[in-house]
Write a structure and sequence with these properties.
2 domains, 362 residues, Aspartate Aminotransferase, domain 2, Histidinol-phosphate aminotransferase, seven-stranded mixed β-sheet, 12 helices, HisP_aminotrans, 15% strand, EC 2.6.1.9, PyrdxlP-dep_Trfase_major, 13 strands, pyridoxal phosphate, alpha/beta, Aspartate Aminotransferase, domain 1
Length: 362
């Protein structure tokens, strides 16, 4: 008889990443995982290659030099930063440290799937707050949180919708949450945002002892393969996370590449500029062929398809895949008639536009 896991574990559906292969196509274009189409900083690549000569050594268990580099660039305190194997690990650590079976966890309706996994892994009760127009609602989140939420997860900007809440709205959310509720603001796409009313919540995390902000090196820094993320919070929260994380949870090449990447402002600005141009292009062109696009401040667009037979999101996905263009179906997010498209290189984006133009005209 097999060993039985804790109740609820077998109810978890493992996270499925964006596809990378198109059957029968030798070199498909992968636009399913919101990766940086420009690659990574050349300086980060050099640091990674240099680190390959030290693979016999354990990494610094506290990633001190990386935390100091992040603090230097972002204007933060290094001892209020913790690094992880991607920001996903930090989210899991928060569940391990702050959730008990039966606790309430809240997120917006189309929030990142990992938040649900954090709750289920901890045996917590998960509540999804309705969105309006694929945008989180502060009022709905507060209603869902009630007076007993343990953690509220807010992706700002949100994946997979690309929408965001203003700084004023996030502060209203924080002010309305019950005492003792941890607000987790996931800013994985923050570096791409270029709108006047968006604000990082790093200053709020500095002021409060019940708020944490997470960031990642996987998106604008282009280091997805190295699995590297960080978080900023009150020292009391950082102390807790350091107690529950593994002693060497960030590997040496990731630390060295991360230090180079965070300091390469030129590459970050180049990536953001490319993204602004390509998201605008995709939005304009796809709307022009009759598709509904949710306005996005991330490095992707959310495309809504008709319910007409032959023109659905599933039909479009098959059509694109057959041509070696891989996008992200959103059935797991309860968006069955939408696809998420990463803003890739200009020529790849044109291929998608041309293919969808043909698809819609057929």
């Amino acid at each position: 008889m097999p060993v039985t896991p804790r109740p609820g574990i077998l109810d978890i559906r493992p996270y499925t990443p964006g596809a990378a292969d198109a059957p029968g196509v030798a070199n498909p274009v992968k636009l399913s995982s919101n990766e940086n189409p420009l690659g990574c900083s050349p300086k980060a690549k050099e640091a990674f290659e240099a680190a390959s000569k030290k693979l016999n050594l354990y990494p610094d268990g506290g990633a001190r030099k990386l935390r100091e580099a992040i603090a230097e660039v972002e204007g933060l305190e290094a001892d209020r930063i913790v690094c992880g194997c991607g920001s996903d690990e930090i989210l899991q650590l928060l569940g391990r440290a702050y959730l008990e079976p039966g606790d309430k966890v809240v997120q917006s309706e189309y929030g990142f799937l990992v938040y649900r996994l954090v709750a289920m892994t901890s045996g917590a009760h998960f509540v999804s707050a309705p969105e309006t127009g694929c945008r989180a609602s502060v009022d709905a989140l507060l209603e869902a949180a009630g007076d007993d939420a343990a953690i509220v997860f807010l992706a700002n900007p949100n994946n997979p919708t690309g929408t965001y809440l203003s700084g004023e709205e996030v502060r209203r959310l924080r002010a309305g949450l019950p005492e003792g509720c941890l607000l987790v603001v996931d800013e994985a796409y923050a570096e791409y945002v270029d709108v006047p009313d968006y604000e990082t919540m790093l200053p709020m995390a500095r002021e409060r002892d019940d708020t944490i902000v997470t960031r990642t090196f996987s998106k604008i820094h282009g280091l997805a393969a190295l699995r590297l993320g960080w978080a900023y919070a009150d020292r009391s929260i950082i102390d807790v996370l350091n107690r529950v994380r593994g002693p060497f949870n960030v590997n040496l090449p990731a630390i060295d590449a991360g230090i180079a990447a965070i300091r390469d402002i030129e590459f970050r600005e180049k990536s953001a500029a490319h993204n602004r141009e390509q998201v605008a292009y995709l939005t304009q062109q796809l709307r022009g062929i009759g598709l509904e696009i949710t306005p996005s401040v991330g490095n992707f667009v959310l495309i809504h398809f008709p319910e007409t037979t032959g023109k659905t999101a599933a039909d479009a996905d098959r059509f694109l895949t057959a041509r070696g263009l891989i996008v992200r179906p959103l059935v797991p997010y309860n968006l069955p008639n939408a696809l998420r498209l990463t803003a890739g290189r200009a020529d790849d984006n044109r291929k998608v536009v041309d293919a969808l133009t043909e698809f819609m005209a057929a």
